[in-house]
Amino acid sequence: MSRTSTLPVIWFQAAGCTGCSISLMNADYPDIQNLILDEIVPGQALSMLFHATLMGRTGRASLEVLERVPIERRGEYVLVVEGAVPTAGKEYGVVGERTMADRTASLAGSALAVLALGSCASYGGIPAGAPNPTGCKGVAEFLRDVGVDTPVINVPGCPPHPRWFVETAAYVLLGKASRPGMVDEVGRLSAVYPGLIHENCPRRADFDVGRFARSFSEEGCLYELGCKGPYTDASCWEHRWNGGVNWCIQAGHPCVACCEPEFLDRVSPLYRKLDPDDIAGAGRGR
Amino acid sequence: MTKLSIDPITRIEGHLKVELEVEDGIILSARSSGALYRGLERILVGRYPLDAQKITQRICGVCPLAHSTAASLCLDDALGISEEVPRNGLLLRNLIFGANFLHNHILHFYHLSLADYVDPEALPGAGTAPLVQLLSPGTAAEDRRFSEQENQRLVENYVLALTMRRKAQELVALFGGKMPHDMAIVPGGVTYSPDLGDIQAFRFRLQEIARFLEERYIPDVFLWLERYRDHLELGRTAVFASFGVFPEDGGRAIPAGALLGGEVVEVRADDVSESVDSSWYEADSVSPAPGKAQGYSWVKAPRLGGRACEVGPAARARVALRLNQNGLRDVLQAGLGGADVAAEQLGSVGGRHLCRALEARFVAQAMEGWLSELDPDAPVACGHEIPAQGSGKGLTDAPRGALGHWIEIEAGRIAAYQVISPTTWNASPRDAGGTPGPLEEALAGTRVRGAGHTEAGRIVRSFDPCLACAVQ
Q: Order of strands across the sheet with A78-82?
């Protein structure tokens, strides 16, 4: 039997809501037990050294991991960041007497790579909505500002579909994430965010014949209700959510473009019909 | 006297620090401090009212349905359509929210709490190394009381519960679109009309989860309580409030009320006040004031009639046991009789876990009833118009306790939005009168074995704190 190599993971939560963690726990095939206990690509497993929601350690005993691993395993671990990074003041986000910004910079500085998980970590997301009271930034932008050059891959979504994390992690473990052309202009793996929802939407036939829903729970295309599907690169239409039981548009709700950099401010009002200007530049993932 | 700071408190939602003063093995006083502020209430100002329903969910990814529900009630009220939401829409909202209760309670006992009681080092067999690493306290485990077989069974159920909580999320998504952050609940009802196939898919998942509750979760909590009987005296509180939850037949399946001492009294939104004396806000209670001298938390201090109230499953149980309403009361009475626990003991670490388990049983039973009442052919939403001016409030209990949303609309936009969450009540700091919050009160006076980590961790987690909710 060949030996399993393990990739240490530090999962750091900043200005977020834990929804990305919960979404990953909703994974199936592989499920969260597989992700914690088993090889996730042949010969390689993840080793979760720090995850504040799940770890047995607490207080000092947990902080000790955050402070020891970057020294002892420098360049060997992946940092997953969930949540945006508050930059406007020292007091808005603090973990163990150090700011989230400070911890993100030092954890990222010694990491092999960073996965910015969720739209907050990728682009600022919800807490960066105007007036962005705490100066929240996505991780890549923040690290650029403070001069840390560890590579960052974004896995946006509010929350991201568990498959988007699993697939991205597999590309990283197999050494395929750094190939030319893999990362799109907004920092995601283009293979994971492959094409517009609108072009693959089960309600597309309604759009083509002009059959539009005018109020909630009506049949028809949701474009008039503000659907951002014409703008959004995501595989929801293909994989659906939570074991494939449903997804936003199937449930009669317009897509809110939760995995795009424009979430929140440029997609709000959520229920206003898109302007053609809004759609210009869409489909960047392809 | 020694000072102990536990920072971060892990296995909760969000960022919490607890500071303790310990003397002669007793916690003299405690301060709980919320460590993250995002400013969601300010981010909502100026936006379209309906957006609040989807944005406020993003306060919390563990209990988004809490905010989804409160926001929809708040907007129903502001839009003047509370009485027009079709019955099917109400049933679907209850079913979606009920599934979130089941998810939450299973997650809380197994994945957030159990590591305080099991000993991962005692697990037999190969292949458990990653689990041992994940669950290990990193220091010598104190006060572990389970036998080797019990320890092993509980850890096996921890792993099984990962699947069961996932299936509870699938229940939410079946009618709600996706999870976390449901899509289908909107002002006026829901957007999704499930067909009979969906209803069957829901029913069989629900039955599978209900079996898990009966065969694993509830027996495990009873076993835990047998071994940790003294936890009925640990982390005590005495004042309780519930906003009630799950609209049904003009009332609520889990009733509202407050126990401020003596009889249950009606909860009135007008009696809720918020103090920011110990919180990092200006006197307007909205503008952040980081570094404010007497402040020690981002959490505000809500009070009901001036009283610091525990909210959550124990509070709902205390209220329900005093009211003449069938349902939760009956499930509780049977369960408490079986465990030989009195109502007066429920405001405790032991009581909180017990109430969660029994409440899960009641919610699963109620969901079976709501499911059988669904009519696949009946409407699920009513129409609405956004008023130029208006205001509304939405009060509901959530898995972790009493939750309120308030909106002011001017010129068709959100002029003000306020959220007071369960953990704002439970983890509140001292108020203007110096009265500590329920969590601080529960910690004070506790006798500890060593430095105090073990007891403090158990008390704090028994409230199921959600700091992303407590400070938005």
A: A39-41, A44-51, A5-13, A78-82, A113-117, A152-155
